[in-house]
Specification:
The complex is a heterodimer of chains A (about 140) and B (about 130). With about 140 residues, chain A is mainly alpha-helical. Chain A is built from five helices and no strands. In chain A, helix 3 packs across helix 4 and helix 4 runs antiparallel to helix 5. The radius of gyration of chain A is 20 Å and the shape is elongated. Chain B is elongated. Chain B contains five helices and no strands. Chain B has one domain. In chain B, about 25% of the residues are buried. At the A-B interface, helix 1, helix 3, helix 4 and helix 5 of A face helix 1, helix 2, helix 3, helix 4 and helix 5 of B.
């Protein structure tokens, strides 16, 4: 049984590779990458912000947290969140059967539901881009 | 069946996070546009503005809820990815236990900090 489990192992390619499944599959891969990035930031964020209970505000004053490289990194976290959130809503809708069309007989030439759900992908990406622009504007002016 | 139920909770948590974390991100990262809950100057994350938000019970409860939902969504998502590597059952169990302990530990730390910061902010207001 254990050996049979190992046969399926394709490692990192199983996480990232989309083959020829279309842009939706790669959007899903990017969804996972941005999820990992946001999670990593979130875990550090909990520790750093918890210090304020002891009167330690690491993000105020000078230092590394005000260097452009950190501000840019912070924006990247926001960008990862915006993408992950918008694409996540798409994934939930698709999982619930919304915007993928009705089931049809598999008659040649076959139609794929991926094309049916393409407008949803485009719509959520437009929302994500608007959020990215708003976040960038706010970051540059603050 | 249990996995399907947890996956449903994972999705539900994601949908809730879309709004709650979106609100948090909006307040923190779109501050220049909105100036929400930041009455002291332009910098949203200044000490004065942080204490102002810490002093509001809604924010304290919101932080704890955000923490719990975010940790569940994030760590369960990470667990799902790791288990896709078709590891040995003992390793899968070790990963589950480790992430569970990590999640409970960070939830405890964050909850303590939110409650303590609320107390500090209120004490500051009372002088």
């Amino acid at each position: 049984m254990a050996a049979a489990r190992q046969e399926n192992r394709i490692g990192l390619w199983g996480w990232l590779g989309g083959g020829r499944w279309g842009i939706e599959r790669y959007a899903y891969s990017l969804h996972r990458l941005t999820g990992l990035a946001v999670l990593f930031y979130f875990l550090l964020h909990i520790v750093v912000t918890s210090l304020r209970a002891r009167g330690i505000y690491l993000w105020t004053g000078g230092g590394f947290f005000h260097k452009p490289v950190f501000r840019f990194g912070e924006y990247l976290v926001f960008a990862a969140f915006a993408y992950h959130a918008c694409n996540g809503i798409r994934l939930v809708l698709v999982e619930l059967g919304v915007a993928i069309g009705k089931p049809i007989e598999p008659v040649f030439p076959y139609k794929t539901s991926l094309r049916v759900q393409r407008p949803l992908l485009i719509a959520v990406m437009i929302v994500a881009l608007i959020l990215l622009a708003a976040g960038g504007y706010s970051g540059l002016t603050q | 069946m249990k996995a399907a139920r947890l996956w449903t909770w994972h999705m539900a948590a994601g949908a809730v996070l879309f709004f709650v974390l979106g609100l948090h991100m909006g307040i923190m990262h779109l501050g220049e546009i909105g100036h929400w809950f930041a009455p002291y100057g332009n910098l949203t994350v200044s000490i004065a503005n942080s204490r102002f938000r810490d002093g509001m019970l809604t924010f304290t409860v919101g932080y704890i809820a955000l923490l719990a939902i975010g940790l569940f969504h994030g760590l369960y998502g990470l667990r799902t990815m790791l288990l896709e590597l078709t590891l040995r059952p003992a390793m899968e169990k070790a990963i589950t236990v480790f992430l569970l302990i990590l999640g409970i530990g960070l939830l405890g730390l964050g909850t303590w900090a939110a409650v303590a910061a609320h107390g500090v902010a209120l004490a500051g207001v009372k002088g």
